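We modelled the chain as a single entity of 110 amino acids. Its sequence is:
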Amino acid sequence: MNNGDLVKTVRMNYLFDFYQSLLTEKQRNYLELFYLQDYSLSEIAETFDVSRQAVYDNIRRTGDLVEDYEDKLRLYHNFEQRQEIYNKIKLNISDETKVMKLIQQLEELE
């Protein structure tokens, strides 16, 4: 798996975590098997007795759907910002002024 595929897989895993409750059972099953369990399209198709193309189309549409949810709700984006600020706090824990500024940034996030 190349770096671009790995980045996409990690992103989709996070988006799945945030938005899975908004998906149908079939959409959840396909994404979970493909991105979390690392099943191939053929393995998923065999599991659900559908064509490989049907699995591919569903995963692509569902991926677009969770990206659309992210564009509107920004849960993953805000999570990343919080993580970044949290890591800066850990690095600057001995500098009270910096820590207070970082805490303020956290509080200002939507």
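As a brief sanity check on the tokenised model: The mean pLDDT is 93. Helices lie at 3-19, 25-36, 41-48, 52-73, 75-91, 96-108.
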